[in-house]
Amino acid sequence: MAIEQTFSIIKPDAVARNLIGTINARLEAAGFQIVAMKLIQMSRSDAENFYGEHQGKPFFGPLVEYMTSGPIVVQVLQAENAVLKYREILGATNPENAAAGTIRHDLAESMSRNSAHGSDSLSSAAREIGCFFEQSEIFSK
Ligand code: UDP
């Protein structure tokens, strides 16, 4: 299997509840190498651009409000099959549907405040990484 990079966000609800270390420990235990990471606060235009595919949906406005409401951790994760592997340990969007043992099942507060983001494809990962990181900020061999 190919070594891939995927993009991750530890969302405002998880940062506010001091879960950065808990989530990073899960990522490392699952075999991900954290090759880039920073604590930032998204601007409104960052969030509208990042979630552009959801523009026009009823949850878009609240999603932008929530994602800009406090600090988040943005990360690049590297592993074999990283995109699918992260979606598996992340769990379904709605924590009520997420499998036991996944990040969202165990930590998320609700469908909207669902603790973490992971890219859904390699092409999304490349786009999303580019929204927040320069190549020089990514420490992969
Ligand atoms: N979201 C929401 N209500 C919905 C669908 C999505 O609040 O009905 C939020 C939720 O935080 C989700 C994000 O919008 O993580 C992006 O939605 P997407 O369908 O891309 O889910 P994901 O890829 O994050 O599982």
UniProtKB/TrEMBL annotation:
Pfam hit, one? NDK
Q: Where is it predominantly found?
A: cytoplasm
Q: Name one GO molecular function term.
A: metal ion binding
The EC designation for this entry is 2.7.4.6
Its subcellular locations are: Cytoplasm
Catalytic reactions of this protein: a 2'-deoxyribonucleoside 5'-diphosphate + ATP = a 2'-deoxyribonucleoside 5'-triphosphate + ADP; a ribonucleoside 5'-diphosphate + ATP = a ribonucleoside 5'-triphosphate + ADP
CDD domains attached to this UniProt entry: NDPk_I (cd04413)
Q: Where's the Nucleoside diphosphate kinase-like domain?
A: 3-140
Read off the SMART domains from this record: NDK (SM00562)
Q: Where is the active site?
A: 117
**At which positions is ATP bound?**
11, 59, 87, 93, 104, 114
- Which cofactors are named for this entry? Mg(2+)
Give a GO biological-process term. UTP biosynthetic process
Query: Its biological function?
Result: Major role in the synthesis of nucleoside triphosphates other than ATP. The ATP gamma phosphate is transferred to the NDP beta phosphate via a ping-pong mechanism, using a phosphorylated active-site intermediate.
Please give the subunit comment from the record: Homotetramer.
> Can you tell me which family this protein belongs to?
Belongs to the NDK family.
- What is the name attached to this protein's record? Nucleoside diphosphate kinase
